[in-house]
Amino acid sequence: MASYPPGQCCIQGFRHEGEATGQIITFGPENVQAYVATAAPDKVRNGSGILFVPDIFGLWQNTKLVADQFAAEGYTTFVVDVFKGDPLPYPPPMDLNFRKWIEEGDDGKPPHNSAVIDPIILDAVRALKERYGVTKVGAVGYCFGAKYVVRHLNKTSGIDSGFFAHPSFVTQDELAGVQGPLSIAAAEVDQQFPPDLRHLSEEILQKIGLPYQINLYSGVSHGFAIRADISQPQQKWAKEQAHAQAVAWFDHTLQLSSEKL
C-alpha cells in the first residue's frame, strides 16, 4: 500500500460555516449528481477546470465551500457524488461499520468500490469538458477521493494533473501508474499515510520521472485540508496553505504544455 485503508480518523473533523454559491446538476447515463462551482468568465484560467473527488461525506458543506474557493481562483470545479446518494452523514452514526459501508453500501445502495466509482469519474471528466468547455483537467482528492485521482491521472481518463491531501486506500501499483504531475499535501500525524508510506511514495514518484511535490504540514492530522478545526490557528493555516498548494500546482502544470513539464 502507498496509503492504508480508511480508518476512524477519516470520519472525524469539523463542519465549516459559509454559504455555498454553486449548483447541483446531474450528469451521465445514470444521472449522478455533482456540485458545480463556475469560475467567472474574466477569471477562467486558460480553459482549465478541476474534477473534485470528495471525502466520505460527499457533497457536504465543507466540500462545496472548497470548490467555491477553486472557482474564485479561476477554476470551474466539478464535485462528483461518487457515492450515488449514499455518503456518510455528518456526524457519522456511533455504530457505523465503516468497512461494510465501503464494501456493500447502505440500504440497498451500490458498494463504494472501484468497479462502481471508476465509470462515474470517466463520465464526470466528459461532462466537465463537454458542458463547461474545459480543455485541461486537474483533479483533486481528499482522503477517500485521493485513490481516484491516482487511478485516473492518465491520458485515457483525460486528467492532466493531480493533487491530493492525506490519502487513504491508494495502492503502490496505482501510484506507480500515474502519467501526469502529482502534488501531495501530507499531515504530520496520519495513520493512513505515515512516514514510511510517505517516503515510499516519494521513491515511487522519483522512479516515474514526472514532476511531483510532497508538502508535509506540522501540527495537523489526517483530514486537515477539508475538515480542519479552523478555530485553531495552526490547523487553519495548514488548511489554507494546502489549498494554495493545489492552486499553485495547477497554475504551473495546467498552463504549461506536457513537453515543458
From TrEMBL:
<dbReference type="InterPro" id="IPR029058">
    <property type="entry name" value="AB_hydrolase_fold"/>
</dbReference>
<dbReference type="GO" id="GO:0016787">
    <property type="term" value="F:hydrolase activity"/>
</dbReference>
<feature type="domain" description="Dienelactone hydrolase">
    <location>
        <begin position="38"/>
        <end position="253"/>
    </location>
</feature>
<dbReference type="Pfam" id="PF01738">
    <property type="entry name" value="DLH"/>
</dbReference>
<dbReference type="InterPro" id="IPR002925">
    <property type="entry name" value="Dienelactn_hydro"/>
</dbReference>
<keyword id="KW-0378">Hydrolase</keyword>
<protein>
    <submittedName>
        <fullName>Alpha/beta-hydrolase</fullName>
    </submittedName>
</protein>
